[in-house]
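Hey, can you fold this?
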Amino acid sequence: MNASSKKKIALIGECMIQLQLDANKQIQKSFAGDTLNTAVYLARLEHIHNTEVHYVTALGTDDFSEEMVQQWQAEGIHCDAVRRLEGELPGMYYINVDEHGERSFLYWRSEAAAKKLLADSTQPALTSLAEYDVIYLSGISLAILPAEDRAKLVKLLSDARAQGSKVCFDNNFRPRLWQSKAEAQEWYKKVLSITDSAILTYDDEQDLWGDTSTEQTKARCKECGIKEIVIKRGSEPCLIESDAFTGEVAAQKVAKEKVVDTTAAGDSFSAGFLAGALTETAKPNQSAAIGHLVAGTVIQHLGGVIDKQPIKDLENAINEALKA
């Protein structure tokens, strides 16, 4: 457990190079990843939670990797746990948008540096997570690792939790990253059994487990001993079950014509929820209200990581949510 006066949260995962054509048919480069998106928005909300935001991943020593780290540091994200591996490269993907606005993706990530976060190497690997008060990971964080390194990660999480760290898990299930649903279920169960707060997208629960009701989702989490369950349902109210609050919290109302890009809706909700939770005074329903505020803003702009000003503009609304 972190002994310093300022709290620390570690977000574990992968950031990739994103390529996409702009309106002039020119390729534009940016950086994106589910837990990275969450880390960025959480860092932008630090004035609320006063917690150091750390990103845990592996990158190469190439120019793209260096640019990523510089961007993260500019956002206020601590990068001391970013492993830099000589000769390795970040993953990359290309977004294709057809004439109907439907998106498809091409990926180059099979040899990405992030897959080697816990691999044996001449460079020191992550050996402990106990210095962090909160550790956040997603199903993608888990999926990209080889099985032997998933086992290492589960042990690191378990050891840190035994020393007082809190584990938060966001399901983010991506079938293409797993050999089978059975394999994914096996590893999800291992992580859920050491999870304190589960932030789950219901569509993914349906896809992975075949759930036909949110009660099934809640029951599975309770069997794993999870004390705080948050079920995200897009534009529908999210559902919460915890000792401090049980019920639903309405999503932000955003007119259909104002929705531009839902890419990071779930990631940004998680950031808002975590921001509230890290205050240690906000109740889960207040944290969820902040999550909805952030997500409702992000989806009105293009890209997973939007400009800073729209998030700054939420300050009064967030303060009201914390008073509610």
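Oh, and this one too while you're at it.
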Amino acid sequence: MKGLRTDGTAIRVMAVDDSPITRKMIKKALEPEGFEIIGEAGNGRDAVELYNKIKPDVITMDVTMPIMDGLQAAQVIKKQNPAQKIIMLSAMSDNDIVAEARAWGIVHFCAKPFKPEEIVEKILRVVSE
């Protein structure tokens, strides 16, 4: 199972996306591989609040969301914990968004729609760094 560390514990993931369907797709891709989805949020504000309670290993974060977008939420989280692993998800390939995310130390991106194996491989790459 790819979602397990060498000590047998699951890699803990928080899925943040305003689309419940996308969050479900992430769960369906990760859980069979042994990853543990420890939290979900539908907007950036809720993501920040949940992050402070659960401290996941990796966050998958949609860029475009209501209330607080993913870039703003990622910035707040990165200020609190610069080492936090975040993968930005976006249906758009906007160079300005990528540049802003990189300025905050977010270097991993996954284009939507994604294949299940893509999100699995991205998370494994992020965790191994």
